[in-house]
Specification:
mainly alpha, Serum Albumin, Chain A, Domain 1
Length: 100
């Protein structure tokens, strides 16, 4: 099991997944990331406009790596701290991400 999968299952089981998603969503909005990605999508669509067969899946494939690189380090760090805090708070609980 990867660390990502363990964290994902643990946060889902502990009920903290929604809190983490809400935190990430609000921080990405606050820092302007959503607007940057929206502009990136528009730019790609204008560039590919002549290609009528350009699909949503192709757009997502092209945008995803660039969008991930645009996430500010401060947001990544805050999210990591939040996840570590959740693990520390639940350390004594019966939820074991390896058993999930």
């Amino acid at each position: 099991m990867t660390i990502f999968n363990a964290v994902d299952k643990f946060t889902m089981m502990s009920g903290d997944r929604v809190k983490i998603k809400d935190l990430l969503s609000s921080r990405l909005t606050e820092c302007g990331w959503r607007d940057e990605v929206r502009l990136l999508c528009r730019s790609i669509l204008q560039e590919k406009g002549a290609i009528s067969s350009f699909t949503v899946e192709q757009l997502v494939t092209e945008v995803t790596p660039r969008a991930r690189s645009l996430v500010p380090d401060a947001v990544k760090k805050e999210l990591l701290i939040k996840i570590r805090t959740i693990f520390d708070e639940n350390e004594d609980d019966d939820i074991d991400p390896e058993d999930a």
